[in-house]
Design brief:
It is built from two helices and three strands. By secondary structure, the protein is α+β, with helices and mostly antiparallel strands. A three-stranded antiparallel β-sheet has the order 1-2-3, with helices on one face. The longest helix has 16 residues. The chain starts with a helix and ends in a 15-residue tail after the last strand.
Length: 71
Amino acid sequence: GKLEQWTLLARARAIDTNSVVAAVGQAYPGDEIAALGPTGVGGSLVASALGEVLAYAGDDPELLVCDVDLE
């Protein structure tokens, strides 16, 4: 679904650019608001230059912190 596409595209962008990518997604707003139209599904992540997911946030609002080694 939408979340899998988001994750794949973020990882691919990290590989394409050979850089760390922080992909920030809108948190799921709840069923009441989601019924009104398209919304985010969460899934914010940090991907390494090799496409590995270094940190991942779920669908609820949260603060995601990730240490990145640039060496």
